[in-house]
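Weekly structure sync, notes
Attendees: PL (lead), two postdocs, one rotation student
Agenda item 3: pending single-chain targets
PL asked that the sequence for the first pending target be pasted directly into the notes so everyone works from the same version. It is reproduced below exactly as submitted, 165 residues in total.
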Amino acid sequence: MKKIILMSSLALAACSSKNDVAMNEHYQAAIIAKEKSRMDAIKEIAKQGEAGAVAAAMMMQNTNTTHAAPNSGKDNALAWAGILVPSIVQATGIAVNADVARTQSNNNTTIATTDSNNNKDIAIDTNSTMAAISEATIVNPEVVTSTNTTTTNTVCVTDSDYSCD
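Predicted structure, written out during the meeting:
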């Protein structure tokens, strides 16, 4: 993180050169000369003495003028960076998300395969266990004899017209 901050501050410090300072000085001198010429023109108009000319000069004096800032090659680079950087960041984010999704899918496949194999092993172990239990507990039919005993229970319901006797 410290390296990123240091590198970005060095990059920004390198953005200003002697040419930029000279260009800025010429730009400011041109603005001053333009404003001086404008004020001289307004002064000449006002010297005419007519009421309309004086009013026009007063209105021109309060007009705010804007000046276009000078452009350098670095401005073009900054404009291109403004276009390219968001696209690159977005493409990188999409690639990282795709990689995460692929890893999750592979992990889920591995888990599902392992669970399936475990269930198969449990079923095989359960079957062999049940077979062993049945072999140990099944009784030979010749050894067992069956005796039938029956018990008869009679239930008698009596009322005023009938008796069980």
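Discussion points:
- Residues 21-70 form one domain.
- Residues 73-137 form the longest helix (65 residues).
Action: rotation student to compare against the earlier draft before next sync.
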